Amino acid sequence: MEASRACALLATVLVAAVLACLCAEGAEGEVVFLPLDERFTTRDAFVNMALSHTPYTLRSPPLAILPHIREAADIPALQKWVDHALLSPHRRHPAGEADEREMILSSEMYLYGGLIGSRISNWTQAEVEGRLAKLVAYKQQLGDGVKIYASAVIMRIPAYNSGFEDQWYWAYYGRDLFQFSYFMDKYDTLRQPADLATAQSYRSKVPPAVVEDWLWRRSRNFNVTKAIIEQQFLWKKQHNQRLFEKLYVTQDDNAEYGFNIAEAEKLKALVRQYGLEEDIYIYPGADEVGLTMLAQSSVRKEGKSPRIKLVFRDPATINLIPNYEGQPMIQTLEDQIKAAGGSLTNDTEAASVILLVNNFSHQPQTEAPHQPLNRSIAEYAVFDAYLAAAMRNPRVVVGFADNRYSNGADVVLIRYMESQHSSASHIPMSKFAYAGWNTDGNTLGTVISSSLLMALFPAKREESTWFNAQRILEDCSYQAQWRQGLVAYTALAGDDPNLLSRDLPFYEQLSYKVLAEDFRVITRVYGLPWTLDAIYYPWRRAFEIGFRSS
């Protein structure tokens, strides 16, 4: 792709991501998008994937009415925006045929004003369900004129003390509440008296009013999600069609046991009772779910499900349970493929996507900053033959699912990928998708979605390199490496990595200097025209980062 065309695309991506009201024209239908919250990883990553991977028109609310950290979205303004986006006259093609509208939305945004709002807001269940009724009314009014894909997150239970994303008391009692939840559910599952005693011991460390408040919030959110599933069943029974084309219930920050695991099992049982297994997916993930919904909606619109061939670095360990999740890696992988609209095949020649899974070999999964770097790229020789097969077939896309470590990339895998580009096989970035960030579910959902969209829209593959170059920058350069350097620097300076706002311009410029050089290396290796203009911290802490390019 010519540099001028590439830079024009990048400018489009940037403008779309920062305009007060995003509205980018495409040629083959319209997507209305309500993100989980305002972060780069949940909003702008979706925008960038939609614009670089698909031909669709995209509309998303202005940042001014979205949440800002612990301040919830302006819900009346958000509802007004959705009214206009869905109920205004369709743009029509010259032949007079209207575009089909698809709505991809987070129920946390629409019902609670964002992800954090779903955890800390004081709205009653009745108030929240009143907003759900408004959402159902859109389908009543528009019928087949709108296809709705919705997500809901089972309220998380982090295993540490921090009140940044949760109710204030999590900063003081978070670990105790996690342990109470873990051992109570373990007791309910295994009926071992020692687990009940342990659960009661941890509960006794927390003020009763705090426990009561937390359980009330869990109950409210669970009942609202249950009501969404019931609405799906009733609508299908009454109208013989789906209210939601697909509904995604994701599990964020969970373990093998816990109230959130019990809630997921109850919701799965309800889905089976109503016969909605093909409508509703319940699995580990959260921040990446918008990308998954985009892939699923594109599969439906294009009328074909790309087939995926799985290749594991370590086939013997695919049943290990990753950090922050409560089920085996292989189960989450299969759940994510189904949720994104893909299908599995054992036939390499029949596959549209070859997914190379850099899975972990030991439990617990190692955190990326602690990985050994003195390893050989020969560890990945199992992938060589599949990369060669992909290069012989122009239609095939390769996906690198880098889930060997949690919270960042496998640095040696990145070296291997670079060596494959520099070798005689010369794998260009327009041939592959990549992800290796945060949790196993985040990584798998992202790379599967990107791979499927690249398979569906081969004409967009050159443009998709911006998204995947950015993933390597964030997952390898930032999460696996520089973020720890930044945290160490804040300690030396007497600052707090969770409160960069004390000197935010300095820390943004410091990180930019490190990452801009890394991005130049990435683009030079793969022969790409992209440049990095700035970085920013959307929640003013070191954990999340955002990028600006032009």
UniProtKB/TrEMBL annotation:
Checking InterPro entries in the record gives: DUF4127
Look up the signal peptide feature and give its range.
1-29
Q: Which UniProt keywords apply?
A: Signal
Cross-referenced PROSITE patterns, in alphabetical order? PROKAR_LIPOPROTEIN (PS51257)
| Top-level division of the source organism's lineage | Eukaryota
Q: What is this protein called?
A: Uncharacterized protein
Task: Please name the source species.
Answer: Acanthamoeba castellanii (strain ATCC 30010 / Neff)
